[in-house]
What does this fold into?
Amino acid sequence: MNQHFTITCLNSEECVFPCHFQSDGKGARIMWYKKKAVVSCTRYGDTSFASNSISAEDKYKGRTGLYDDHVLQGNATLVTA
It folds into this structure.
């Protein structure tokens, strides 16, 4: 089921972008994009994804995060500062 909703964020405030997915509980690679720019790219657990040099663009480094303890349970919610 696709759900569409509007998220409004104000400057200098934390913003939460909810995301839930079906997880096998073993491993995942979570990638968030803004247009074509990589905002966040993180690997969790045992993954078969090839290790590569994809990383967040400099302007997003240190400004984003996931709820690490919940990713393998299917929660890829992105928090920005």
